[in-house]
Amino acid sequence: PIEMLYTIVPLVMILGLFWFTARDQSELLSLENDQQQTVNVVGFRWAWGFNYLDEGVYTIGLPVGAGTTNDPATLVLPVNEKVRFELTSPDVIHSFWVPAFLFKMDVIPGKTNVFELTPDKVGTYAGKCAELCGVDHSRMLFAVKVVERPEFDAYIAGLKAKGQTGTLDTGRTTDAGQAPDERTL
């Protein structure tokens, strides 16, 4: 009887934890397709790029400590508007993590991972790659700046004025023989 107790109790505990995890995960990852913004996050060795798909513009950063600036790539989002994130990578596995959003998701080559969230507080939040992806992984930082809608519109207009229109290479797979119509990182 004692051996059965040592077998059945842990099994019940594991099944209970699995059920709660599966229930919560499917609720967190559900997509309603009613977003106001869609951002394609491109993780590449060893920096980040952001394609604002609805506006047709992009921004790209350098690894922190590279070149003459220590500013990470910045993702600007409007406050209180649902954003769909499409995560892609042209090279190795990365992980898009913004601790203040309490959410992390892997960025996998050849696969698009998607999630939605609504930033509800204006501010600047730190983000980083949470997957050991190579020699400069520790420099793969970014910032998320949540702003009011007029400031977001001005930011998008500034990207257009700089000529940053179109999209970055996302690492998405294409049909054989077709070249993607995207800029190369």
Summarize the structure in words.
- The longest helix has 27 residues, at 2-28.
- The chain is α+β, with helices and mostly antiparallel strands and 185 residues long.
- It has two helices and ten strands.
- Helix content is 22%, strand content 32%.
- Strands 3-2-1-5-8 form a five-stranded mixed β-sheet.
- Strand 6 (94-98) and strand 7 (103-107) form a beta hairpin.
- The radius of gyration is 19 Å and the shape is elongated.
SSE order, one letter for each helix or strand:
HEEEEEEEEEEH
How is the biggest beta sheet arranged? 5 strands, mixed
What would the principal axes of the Cα set say about the shape?
Answer: elongated
Which percent range describes the beta-strand content?
Answer: 25-35%
Radius of gyration: 19 Å
Strand order of the largest sheet: 3-2-1-5-8
Distance between the termini: 63 Å
Overall mean confidence score, pLDDT: 84
Topology:
Blueprint: H1 2-28, E1 37-44, E2 47-52, E3 57-60, E4 73-78, E5 83-88, E6 94-98, E7 103-107, E8 113-117, E9 123-129, E10 141-147, H2 149-161
Parallel strand pairs: 1-5, 4-10
Antiparallel strand pairs: 1-2, 2-3, 5-8, 6-7, 6-9, 9-10
Summarize the model shown:
The protein has 185 residues and is of the alpha+beta class.
Keywords:
five-stranded mixed β-sheet, single chain, alpha+beta, 10 strands, disordered C terminus, 32% strand, elongated, 2 helices, 185 residues
